[in-house]
Amino acid sequence: MRLTHSRSSRSLIADAPLISSAWAVPVIVAALLAIFALDAATYQAPVQHLYYLPIVLAGVTFRWRGGVASALAAIALYHVANPHPLTWRAEEPDVLQIAVFIAAGIVSAKLADDTRRLRRMALTDDLTGLHNLRSFEARLQMMVAAARESGTSLSLMVLDLDRLKSLNDEHGHLAGAEAVRLVGRTLAQSLPPHAVACRYGGDEFVVAIPEVDEREAMAIAESLGREVHAAAPVLAGLAHPRGRLSISVGIASRTFDGASTSATESIDHAGEQLFRDADAALYAAKNGGRNRISLACPT
Length: 299
What we know:
By secondary structure, the chain is an alpha+beta fold. The chain folds into two domains: 21-123, no CATH class; 133-295, Reverse transcriptase/Diguanylate cyclase domain (Alpha-Beta Plaits, 2-Layer Sandwich). The chain has helices at residues 21-42, 45-48, 52-81, 94-123, 133-150, 164-171, 173-190, 214-230, 267-287; strands spanning 88-89, 92-93, 153-161, 196-199, 204-210, 234-235, 238-239, 247-255, 293-295. The strands form three sheets. Strands 4-5-3-8-9 form a five-stranded mixed beta sheet, with helices on both faces. It has a two-stranded antiparallel ribbon with strand order 1-2. Residues 5-16 have low confidence and may be disordered.
């Protein structure tokens, strides 16, 4: 699904966790006990190195607390299976083995945290903290698929900040950027929890709201418009009166029931058509005088 035409053809593939938290605890416990049994039976260093596996898994799944807890459990089991604390065995002092177990848990948690942080950065718009376009496209595709399967409604809102150019010209681009950030923050705070919003242009936003029809989407857009218009923002250090900012919104809604859904229509096409309809409605709102909401004509 492509809402804009870019040269890159790479699509977003959300990385799934290695194992769900619900399954991680029994898997880690079972792995520790199995390795302990092998260790007690063999006293072999290669078997003892298997303790790293549940330690790393715990660090990746439960972060540093999980990694350290698993490392401490591995240390206890290791010394029960090999009752020679702090002595030299297998050409390696036990105190070093203890340190390496703990380090493995902490390092694996740190690497997992860095991966999560990088993934969030890859999916997030820097200015507003909302989804970026690539992330939104993937989420919209899933929402369309879910709406088709369940026969429910899906609404798209395309909106932008009115008269941003005049704001930039009069007060500078920093003021304009802060105004865009304010709109993004309003979206993040005011939209329903299941909505997904992104900034896909300078001051342009798109919002997908599942299980919401045209009437409900209109009510949400009206509420957003009132909040933005009622704000008395401080932009680039300069206080502005209430009513200085406003948004225009275009809305397109569709119910994916048997009567309106073609068996041959692709999920990508359905999402793109919703976006085009909402975008056309936004232009109608802008042409109608701004600070207003326009509904897409049925297609």
